[in-house]
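Case 494 in the screening queue. Each case pairs one protein sequence with one candidate compound; here the compound is iron/sulfur cluster. For every case the pipeline is the same: read the inputs, emit a complex structure as tokens, and attach any notable structural observations.

Predict complex for case 494.
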Amino acid sequence: MSEQENDPKPSTSNVPDNTPPQADKPKKKKPAPEKIIPTTPIMDASKKRIHPRFVRGKYQNIRLVTMYGFMAIFLIMPWLRWDGHQALLFNVTEPKFFVFGATFMPQDFYFFAFIFIIAAMTLFMVTVYAGRVWCGYVCPQTIYVHLYQHVEKWVLGERNQRMKFEDEPMSAKKLAKKALIHAIWGVFSVITAMTFIALVVGTDYLFFNGNPLFFMGWSKLTWVFFGIITFVTHMNAGYMREHMCVHMCPYGRFQSVMFDKDTLLVSYDYERGEARGARKKGTHPEGMGDCIDCNMCVQVCPTGIDIRDGLQVDCIQCAACIDACNEIMDKVGYPRGLIRYTTERQLVHKEKTKVIGFRIFAYIFVLTVAIATATWVATTRNPLELEIRHDRKQLNTVGRNGLVENSYVLKIVNKTDEKQTYMVKLEAVDGLEIRSRFKELPLKANEAYSMPVSIFGDPSKIKAGHTPITITIYSVDGKYSQSAEDIFIYEPKK
Ligand code: SF4
Ligand code: SF4
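Case 494 output:
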């Protein structure tokens, strides 16, 4: 059904005061659906742009707090400081991630795998019990679409004015209004792109790079990414909107298979609402349900669907239709909750929702294991890294002093946020001795250095063949140490 078909009449025409006398005839009641599991969306190229009516109410107030709260956190993130440095910096070119004083190198990225597993499991668990709350309340797509639609409302007016504006022929006035909308959208798109890039290159590089016009100090690559993110944000929030949720978002596509009879979903109470139809104020004609067919639930829907047709994949569970319908119910004097959060078990099967089940225990178990492992990894992580590379080209060299020499390169990484001075020692059998280029090695915060060292073996004291060795790097203040194992090779010439 196109949106125009959904919205042929003014919003309050079915509220009692304006109801024509012949309006008491109810529409034929269709059989109630046996399930509220979503149907598949149909790609409709003829579907007109959706201009939802903005509604106020309990759920929309909660959404405003969650949506714009998360947006504020995103905008503040690059400006947080920790020990004088940017607290969150995801430098993908080096690559090195800084997260509140901790430094993560490529070899630590498995830690982020735990974070992703925890985030994914939490999302799955929430989806099973509370449906698409992520989509409706915190998804960046929902937040940006809401913001950009608010800009249209601010410039053009409420839904009817926006729809009228769209159908108007092009004129200087229309062009000026469109330009104003794009200019405001552009400001938000630019701020979004800068925030993203600041998390990768740092605010110092982006804004305090020594150039009075800070953007003139950016590299070509920075400009490319800035342009791409600005463009994508602008097009996505300005034009793609619900198409992204319905046809492109992978979570939107697979989440419906996670729903079961006990999932909390925004649903229309079919039995109570049907047969729908207009009626005179203060009446409730025989055979009619509570739905006065005012279409308000359709007008406020950001994806343009009619929740009375059953739950659809297009539904992002924003609960705007609940707030709109509750407002109508208040006006006509019927109880609230014709559209409400409920479960299929409650609504269709008239049974009590089962919250505790096997699935919740399975999710809790997996989450507990993942969180415990991530905590263990984070707390036992050594901020000093050592890697030994044995120089295979110079094995078994015998010097003039008669000692056998093996050469190695020690890659040492100081992953703390402070300067450290390190020393090296060898743990091995008698007859082996380590000599390094420096007695003490000072390294700045997050600095890496490859230091050549040699191990000399006295042929009269060591056995031929492979001798295990352990090299230890330790900070002179005794706070950090790291060891790595390798072998010393002595193969006497025959
Ligand atoms: S469900 Fe509620 S908001 Fe929707 S048409 Fe019926 S009365 Fe109006
Ligand atoms: S049907 Fe209701 S809950 Fe679903 S997207 Fe539309 S307004 Fe939001």
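Case 494 observations:
- The longest helix spans residues 172-201.
- Residues 1-23, 36-45 have pLDDT under 50 and may be disordered.
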